[in-house]
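Long-time lurker. I teach an intro course on protein structure, and each term I like to show students one example going from raw sequence to a predicted 3D structure in token notation. This year I'd like something fresh instead of my usual example. Would anyone be willing to generate the tokens for the chain below so I can use it in lecture? Attribution to the forum is fine with me.
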Amino acid sequence: MGMPPVPEPASSSDPVGGPVESTRRDAPALRGAGRKGPKRLPRRAAAGRRSFTATLRALDDLASSGARVSVRIDDLDGGAPVLAGDDFVTLPVGGLGVVALLIEVAASFESGRLDALEIIDRAQVHGATNGGVWQHLKAPALPLSDVAVLAASSGDALAVNALLHRVGLQSVRARIEQLGLRRTALLDRFRDDRGPDDAPHLALSTAREMAQLFAGLVNSTVVSPGVSAQVAEWLSLNHDLSLVASATGLDPFAHENDQHGLLFVNKTGRAPGVRAEAGVLGGPRSAVSYALVANFDDLSIAHRLRAHDAFRVLGVELMEYVF
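-- Reply from a regular --
Happy to contribute to a lecture. Here you go:
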């Protein structure tokens, strides 16, 4: 299957907030986050910088095994695409789709449609035991702001379902449309089992739209500066640093104040045969937004580890790029 060339840099009419500007040091959202069949991928990278050859080799190997792979990296210090491969293809992204829900929740807090301290009882919510900690806690009810923290930091399935129960799936879909994300959709809540009458996946998106969305968050252009900062703050608490983020060397449970000046925000998505991650990584030399999505046959631990290894190789080369 053929691969498209790397697209031109985003124009001022791009979705999720317009052009990517060189705001790595000044963007309030990023400052807050730092504290608190087989196919082949194109060989192209920003001139004078790393070519991501190891990443391309790992993704080629993954694609040759039958996986569907989508990748996008954008340099935030100028907005030029660094790497793109099938970045327009819509694929299941698992819990990465929760970012759109968090944006709608933060926007509802800011507008006053929701009270951040409103208490929600988990007994009112569709149960889900496939991830998270709230199901193990004694507290049967929590304020919405705490539920949002659980959803962002641990991908808590019950917390995600609670937020979705409160704001409504249609509101999230309307927000996605308002953001200009044409190939992104939150389809359903978390379920322990998906039957024939249920949506086949939690969420769909593309690497291009996820990379652009995270760039918009750190550039404070998603809905408003306040909403962008709030969502980036929630996501900066993410505990899952096992894929791309494994190369950062950050403490998964306390990485808001890195002594080496690394600025990092990310979200992962996991489902059977699905691994996805998007985020922003900033170092002393540059900053990038990135997204990588892999759909693969999870037939054995070897198949799964092959996919995980590709994410980690990308993480190493992203660190070399920003440092």
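Some talking points for your students: The first helix runs from residue 28 to 35. The two ends are 34 Å apart (CA to CA).
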